[in-house]
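Dear Dr. H.,

I hope your travels went smoothly. While you were away I took the liberty of generating a structure for the chain from your last submission, since the lab meeting agenda had it listed for discussion. I wanted you to have the full record in hand beforehand rather than looking at slides cold. The sequence, exactly as received, is reproduced here:
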Amino acid sequence: MDAKKILFITQEITPYLPESEIATICRNLPQGIQERGREIRTFMPKFGNINERRNQLHEVIRLSGMNLIIDDTDHPLIIKVASIQAARMQVYFIDNDDFFQRKATVADDNGIEYEDNDDRSIFYVRGVLETVKKLRWIPDVIHCHGWISALTPLYIKKAYADDPCFKNTKMVYSVYNDDFKTPLRKSFAKKLKLSGITDKDLSEIHNKEVDFASLTKLAVKFSDGVIQGSETINEEVLNYISTNKKIPFLPYQSPETYIDSINEFYDVVMESNQ
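The corresponding predicted structure, in token form, is as follows:
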């Protein structure tokens, strides 16, 4: 039997960014899943505070060169790659001069979140999906970590629903205690619309300033499985998950158990008919 393919779309990974709950899980989980016989690919944004020379990033010319249009503006897509030798694991980076050159991740040195985080999220998610298509690598499961990846379930289930690369792909979304404080702009819903996405699909965020809870609920709505990644998460989101009994849910797992638990959860999700 062919090894099942798991695509990780994450906000941060150590050692490329400082250790955090998401960065540590997304360093160890893909390696653990690979060691349990799955085939993996891992993506993160190429934030400007990632040291390219020290981490030996290099551009993948055959994957770069595409343009993505967001809000009627063309943005070139640049793909870079590096290896975590100890894990025998490659990490792909989504880069763009407009979005990922500033020397921070989602907020400046004073903690002020960037106004264009909405556009950065759209660009990142679409960049990953277009790159995976170019790789001709068809994932059985896509597992998202961090709110910057939250649009992935919507795009997979709606905009890419008929794409041969993704039409049978299952979506898993991990919810963390990574709330952002500044709502995304009211134009967000309009900008992320692609063919296949309707106003009804975006009812949680249409013509509203989008806060963490509403963005996360949008991700959960289009997921095939949900994982509680942090010991405590947003109460509104947790209530939303608990009322949606159809979606398989994995409660918070300890650092000692989460790799095996998530590996088993992938099988549950792949076998569900949702």
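Two observations you may find useful: Helices lie at 21-35, 97-100, 117-135, 152-159, 188-192, 212-221, 235-243, 258-271. The mean pLDDT is 94.

With kind regards,
E. W.
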